[in-house]
Specification:
Layout lengths: L3 H8 L14 E2 L3 E6 L6 E8 L3 E6 L8 E9 L4 E13 L9 E10 L1 H20 L4 H6 L4
Antiparallel strand pairs: 1-3, 2-3, 2-5, 3-4, 4-7, 5-6, 6-7
């Protein structure tokens, strides 16, 4: 028989918990520069997805759940990348698989300036507009069996 802690840990393993998400996520590969709170040595990583509440990160360093990381997230287009400085906390992580270059983890924003939050919101709104502007040709829809 499992105790409550084991049940909590097991219940989240391998299960996507979409109903707990407050914000839409966008698959997006953005560069990040990060450093651990207790260590000022900066490293480079990337995002896998982004939302107003947090990120999916791929980092070369293993992090512990609950660990805080300071980072610069670079968002924008190819012409201009805008850095956003944020303090994040690791809320989940995957097992490291042999052959993978990076560790995969989910982080939530715990400290972001109002100005940087506005930059992030504007960027995400732009992504939503671009997504809504994308039209799929009727011919492709027909080929896929969608009317």
């Amino acid at each position: 028989m499992m105790n409550k802690k084991e049940e909590r840990e097991k219940s989240g393993f391998g299960v996507a918990n979409f109903e707990r998400r407050k914000n839409p996520r966008f698959l997006l590969n953005c560069p990040v520069e990060y450093w651990q709170v207790e260590n000022s040595k900066n490293r480079i990583g990337r995002t896998g997805d982004i939302s107003e509440g947090g990120l999916l990160l791929f980092l070369p360093d293993e992090m512990d759940i609950g660990q805080q990381i300071e980072m610069k997230l670079f968002i924008g287009d190819l012409v201009e990348l805008k850095p956003i400085e944020v303090l994040v906390q690791v809320v989940w992580k995957d097992l490291y698989l042999e052959g993978d270059d990076d560790y995969r983890m989910g982080v939530k924003f715990i400290d972001i300036s109002p100005q940087d939050l506005d930059k992030l919101r504007l960027f995400l709104e732009t992504l939503i507009k671009k997504r809504d502007e994308v039209t799929i040709s009727p011919r492709l829809l027909s080929a896929l069996g969608i009317s």
